[in-house]
């Protein structure tokens, strides 16, 4: 009898073991399903900035992950000419200007994929300002760019002006997506949520606006600058603010207007941020062409003024501190500049766009000690224009003339505005991560194409339904067998 029971138990255990092993093999063996070749998909985003427009072509491969996230930049294309907001006299020209880049993108996408390639155009602060000045003009420019894109075989999804908050939040999403701060692909092939605290803040300096976005330590006190997100099952409360008129170009225009106002009737004005030997002629129409500067009560738009560079670095810095209003704070002490609410900065930050361009020219990327930064800007500002242009023959004068001023502007807003004075080393000045540009465009596309799920369950690993059913069947069957044996053995014991 004991012998019989042992045989039965042995046989049953063997059956359970075999069933469990099959279930395990099914569960573990076939993760490669996701590596089956999916066709490459594409997406296009136009960044219609205040100073210029660029096209970004992104690609991704079904569910197949590469080591830096799923979506990468295949190529980018710079549109010739200025930003679309400069086409007020010729809105159709704004549409026309996009064709070169659209043709290049079309050539890069296989014909059969073109119809399913989404295209977005997002305009930022240049169009925000035009929209404030003259909505009819901004609408007609948007209509013209939409019309041109629709002549291409893509899936056009709209041309619109982003809010400053969207611009800041999407830049933050792009940065953290590329750095895999939300979800990380491990060596073993699964996805994990990385340790909290590795979320990076984003600093974007454009021509007409500048954005700061980060997750503060404490809850955001002003709902107007709170942006709540849920990504891969985790909630984030973002502080984000966009300072309209405080992009690099509009801030430097404010400085010109300030100098003009203080020059009285003189048409020749010393400019301490311009290099000795550099002269700039400007009509008053050009100087006062933006809502960021208040013109004198009466002026002749055709009058010209002459800015003469004096290369006085310390005077330049103190004038820039006048442009950025550093006093007054309603929610004291939590302020950025201009009395705008901002919680204390928290953690590491990536600074891109004109932050990067300026610091790249200065040789200060990705990081440099603050003392070196300040002395490098001083040295640059004191160079005379002839020497500077001779040393930098490949740099466009329209950028070269402003690096002194923008160097001082950047340190002013970062140190005294956002108050990185004790955390300077937390800022990296970068253009790309994993060969993909940092900016709002990728985050915008990821969001609009629902490529960042809000729930963890939609994350990337998985098995096909049939395999999942087989796994469940064998696991259930193993459990059933175990139970059956226990019951049989107990019944036999009782009836004995
Ligand atoms: N090579 C460069 N050197 C210096 N500044 C640059 C360079 N390329 C672009 N920029 C600056 O970067 C900024 C880009 O802003 P943009 O995206 O056009 O405006 P916004 O984001 O405010 O709509 C502009 O101030 C432009 O002058
Ligand atoms: Ca921009």
TrEMBL record:
Gene Ontology annotations for the cellular component aspect, listed alphabetically: plasma membrane
Reaction catalyzed: a ribonucleoside 5'-triphosphate + 2 H2O = a ribonucleoside 5'-phosphate + 2 phosphate + 2 H(+)
Main subcellular location: membrane
Keyword Flavoprotein: no
Cofactor: Ca(2+); Mg(2+)
Keywords: ATP-binding, Calcium, Cell membrane, Disulfide bond, Glycoprotein, Hydrolase, Magnesium, Membrane, Metal-binding, Nucleotide-binding, Transmembrane, Transmembrane helix
Binding site for ATP: 207-211
Compartments, record wording: Cell membrane
EC code: 3.6.1.5
Enzyme class: hydrolase
GO molecular function, one term: UDP phosphatase activity
Protein's GO biological process: nucleoside diphosphate catabolic process
Pfam families listed in its UniProt record: GDA1_CD39 (PF01150)
Chain ranges passing through the membrane: 468-491
Active site (UniProt): 167 (proton acceptor)
Superkingdom, taxonomy of origin: Eukaryota
Topology in membrane: Multi-pass membrane protein
Family classification: Belongs to the GDA1/CD39 NTPase family.
Designated name of the protein: Ectonucleoside triphosphate diphosphohydrolase 8
